[in-house]
Design goal:
Layout (H helix, E strand, L loop, with lengths): L9 H6 L10 H7 L11 H17 L2 H7 L17 E3 L7 E2 L5 E2 L2 H8 L8 E8 L3 H13 L39 E3 L5 H11 L7 E8 L13 H11 L3 E6 H4 L4 H16 L6 E2 L7 E9 L8 E8 L5 E2 L2 E4 L3 H19 L4 E6 L5 H13 L6 E8 L22 E8 L2 E6 L20 E7 L9 H15 L13 H12 L20
Parallel strand pairs: 4-5, 4-6, 6-7, 9-13, 13-14
Antiparallel strand pairs: 1-15, 2-3, 2-8, 9-10, 10-11, 10-12, 14-17, 15-16, 16-17
């Protein structure tokens, strides 16, 4: 068993002859110099399947168990074969994405580097922020952004702004070339202890051109996940300071640049995120199923060491695929949540008039008080359209799984598969798969994101009609498509961006002064 230290009693010590082993986090392992052995699991879905089968054969499907509990396991304890009517799949065109040069395909992992961004952002002036000790890394990254390839000799062979490879995908994703760099704005600070104060002085002294937009590339020697570092908070402080000047930023950890996979793996992720942060679109849904629906996402995040949980809210996805009105509040601050919902609704009305439906993606099942807040916000804004609430949860640690045994070395159902679990009291529950197995070629895909999400679809309490089978099909397709335009990575993610982006906001906001976003941060994908 696994116990907290405070729960270990004398009888545990006696039963184990004192052989009790601590589970330690990364920083303690590092401090004690405990070697870490990491095995990369190529397909967690196969591992899960084999683990379940081994557990059943060793512990469940044996006489000692079945006789003691008085059960006969059906079909010799094999998995349950789902009825065909339980298994559905979205239309093939719903899977298609649009990239640069109007090219369509299903996989960002393969196609983003070939075709570039679907919509290039508006032109920005870029500049670097880094410790003085990282001068070599700065020029190496400069070369990568200009040429789309690496050069370990970059500091010895510095490129002029005119020297750019217009054939590489970075050029067709973010602005590089003559006007891509802000002259005289690169900033090197002395050390992490004085970095924030020195950066603030640097920004104060800069003569910004008011008709230009700026973007900072930060090279950090502090791992943002290393909470034991005395400068752990610098990552958040720099982001917030830049946002006060309406400047977006991308932090690149120095150790990532030194990894062999940096060019082929990390740079495409960085480029997709920067494109989104600067107002572009790394890729788009080629054939959107959304009509004049207003979509709001509410996500939450609780960070270790911070007792208060924040809720990110009011991510409004309109019919043009734009995201608006990011905000966050403390969990339980229902009045503030109501205010952000009203703001999102009014924003949509101002641009698109009356929505055909209001669709709310929620990170957990709504309780009565939360339902009342949403209903009250709708009444305040005089919204009379149907309301659909969708609860989405990740299933990485759940025991509710489905396997496609027709593809034994992958086992994962193809992308777009959705499996009906049950319908009860008007609530429709499904497993929804968004991955990079398309057709029969899953075994060749290196970008598998295997685990599905569980979605529960229910009508608003004041809706006059129950959801039809066609309504549910449309909502599942819409949910599938909103998982496929997450620009934080070229690998597929399982959670709809309406919840995923809101949760990212909730992750950052506790580190900001008074737990507040700047106005710049409320309408910008700075959190990617």
């Amino acid at each position: 068993m696994i116990l907290k230290k405070s729960e270990i009693g004398q009888h545990h010590m006696e039963a184990t002859n004192g052989k009790i082993y601590p589970i330690v986090n990364h920083s303690i392992k590092s401090g004690l110099k405990i070697p870490t052995h990491y095995h990369r699991d190529g397909n967690k879905y196969v591992t899960k399947y084999n683990g379940i089968r081994n557990f059943i054969s060793k512990w469940i499907n044996i006489p000692a168990f079945t006789e003691s509990v008085g059960v006969d396991l059906p079909n010799n304890a094999h998995f349950i074969q789902l009825a065909e009517e339980k298994i559905n799949i979205v239309e093939e065109k719903a899977k298609m994405l649009r990239f640069g040069n109007n090219q369509t395909n299903v996989s960002p992992g393969y196609c983003f580097k070939r075709f570039g961004a679907a919509e290039r952002p508006t032109e920005h002036r870029h500049f670097f922020i880094c410790p003085r000790s990282q001068n070599f890394t700065l020029w190496r990254l400069y070369y990568i952004f200009q040429q789309g390839k690496d050069s370990k000799n970059a500091p010895k062979n510095r490129l002029s702004p005119d020297d750019i490879d217009t054939n590489n995908y970075l050029y067709h994703t973010i602005w590089m070339g003559n006007h891509a760099w802000a002259n005289g704005m690169n900033f090197m600070f002395s050390d992490d202890e004085h970095a924030l104060a020195e950066l603030e002085n640097h920004l104060t002294a800069m003569n910004f051109e008011h008709d230009k937009k700026y973007f900072a590339i930060i090279i950090s020697d502090v791992d943002r996940d290393d909470v034991s570092s005395p400068h752990y908070h610098l990552y958040y402080d720099m982001k917030y300071l830049l946002m006060k000047y309406n400047i977006g930023s991308q932090v690149i950890h120095k150790k990532r640049v030194d990894e062999n996979s940096f060019i082929n793996y990390m740079v495409p992720n960085i480029a997709a995120a920067i494109a989104g942060k600067e107002g572009g679109k790394a890729w788009k849904i080629a054939y959107p199923s959304q009509e004049n629906d207003m979509i709001v996402g509410i996500g939450a995040y609780r960070e270790h060491g911070i007792n208060q949980q924040y809720i990110g809210s009011a991510v409004c996805l309109d019919k043009e695929g734009e995201l608006h009105n990011f905000d966050a509040c403390l969990k339980g601050n229902f009045e503030e949540l109501r205010a952000t919902l009203i703001k999102a609704i009014l924003n949509f009305y101002g641009k698109f008039k009356h929505p055909s439906r209001l669709i709310i993606y929620y990170h957990k099942k709504l309780n009565r008080e939360e339902s009342d807040i949403i209903e009250d916000a709708l009444r305040t804004c005089q919204v009379s359209c149907p309301v659909i609430v969708i609860h989405v949860t990740e299933t990485d640690n759940e025991d509710l799984m489905a396997f496609d045994t027709s593809c034994t070395n992958v086992l994962m159902p193809v992308s777009g598969t959705y499996i009906h679990l049950r319908t009860r009291k008007g609530c429709h529950e499904y497993l929804l798969y968004n991955n990079e197995r398309y057709g029969g070629f899953g075994e060749k895909m290196p970008f598998l994101r295997p685990f599905p999400v569980k979605i529960s679809i229910m009508p608003g309490r004041r809706n006059k009609k129950e959801l039809t089978e066609q309504d549910v099909k449309e909502i599942v397709t819409l949910t599938y498509q909103t998982t496929r335009i997450n620009w934080k990575s070229v690998s597929m993610r399982s959670m709809p961006i309406t919840i995923a982006y809101a949760a990212l906001v909730a992750k950052f906001v506790p580190h900001f002064p008074n737990g507040q976003l700047t106005e710049f941060g409320k309408n910008n994908l700075w959190m990617l």
